[in-house]
Amino acid sequence: MINGVKYFELVAEPVTREILPGVFIKGWGYNGSIPGPTIQVYPGDYVNIRVYNKLPEETSIHWHGLDIPVTMDGFPDVEPTPAIKPGYYFDYHFKIVNPPGTHMYHTHHFAVKQEMMGLGGGFIILDPKESKKDIQRDYFIMLQEFHVKGLKIGEVKPGVYEIDPMNHDFNFFTMNGRCFPYTTPLLVKECENVRIRLGNISEIAHPIHIHGHQFSITASDGNTIPTKNRMLKNTILVASGETWDIEFFTKNPGIWPFHCHIPHHMSNNMQKQTGGMFTTIIYK
Ligand SMILES: [Cu+2]
Predict the structure, then answer these.
(1) Which of 30, 77, 202, 264 is the most buried (most CB within 10 A)?
(2) What is the mean pLDDT of residues 33-51?
(3) What distance in angstroms lies between residue 247's CA and the mean position of ligand 1's atoms?
(4) Which residues contact 277 (CB under 8 A, 6 or more apart)?
(5) Contact criterion met (CB below 8 Å) for 41 and 188
(6) For the chain, which domains are there?
């Protein structure tokens, strides 16, 4: 924070990401990670996000869901601000005028390739009025999928692999850049209000399903849903471009699956055992 402005830095760069123990994919990400770091701000903040381009081609960042001036929106094909050339940086700066909610950021240049290389992350506008009394656990999960080259169907072995962003025959499906059983479990205790924020900027819509609980859908695309209009469900389809916030109360102890329901998305390259876009909710 300098003179009332919150400064952030994102470095768009090649990233070798370990999606399973010993299995690395050569994608593109931010600050060494796929997805990039989750940015957290408050309503009314002035932010300056310096984006360095260490990729071998031009890129941009679009602040997905934010109501900001067109010069800062990061879509060089139709908007006034040109793409960031390799070796250069650009300062995206704007005021946060949206209310608290879950948003995302991602490349909006040569998106057909760059989004599928992994260039995205979470952008959360926190609620300054919310306290630990309201929500005891607050998770963000970005859903992504990749076509990893060089493996036969059913084969998963340690190595460093190229991905083909133009091939939509996806074989690896991630939550926050990892496949089950390498995904991070969601830890909870009994009698807690748990929020999970789901985001997707990839190709495929993912129906995310919880076991042993019903969840309330509390926000769509970063917009809070009035309490009386909230649906109770146990599966929610998260399409490309969408964020959904869901909340549930922990009253059923155990280890519970939380996963995409498309059969081949909960497998690593069609293997028999569970993998892919799958994690567990673990009561401690
Ligand atoms: Cu899926």
Answers:
(1) 30
(2) 98
(3) 20
(4) 143, 145, 173, 174, 175, 179, 180, 206, 208, 259, 260, 265, 266
(5) no
(6) 178-283 (2.60.40.420)
Q: How remote is the CA of residue 262 from the centroid of ligand 1, in Å?
A: 5
100 in Cβ contact with 14 (< 8 Å): no
The whole-model pTM stands at 0.97
Cα separation, 3 vs 113, whole angstroms? 38
User: Tell me: the pLDDT tens digits for 225-257?
Assistant: 999 999 999 999 999 999 999 999 999 999 999
Measured in angstroms, how far is the CA atom of residue 109 from the centroid of ligand 1? 25
**In this structure, what token pair is assigned to residue 87?**
């070796």
pLDDT confidence of residue 226: 98
Task: Write the CB contacts of 52 (distance below 8 Å, at least 6 apart in sequence).
Answer: 9, 10, 11, 12, 13, 88, 89
* For ion ligand 1, residues whose CB falls within 5 Å: 206, 260, 262, 265
Read off the pLDDT band of 258 (50, 70, 90).
Answer: very high
C-alpha 15 to ligand 1 mean position (Å):
23
* SS3 category, 44: coil
Would you state the pLDDT for residue 67?
98
C-alpha 264 – ligand 1 centre gap (Å): 8
Give, in order, the Cα–Cα distances in Å from 97 to each of 66, 94, 101, 171.
8, 9, 11, 39
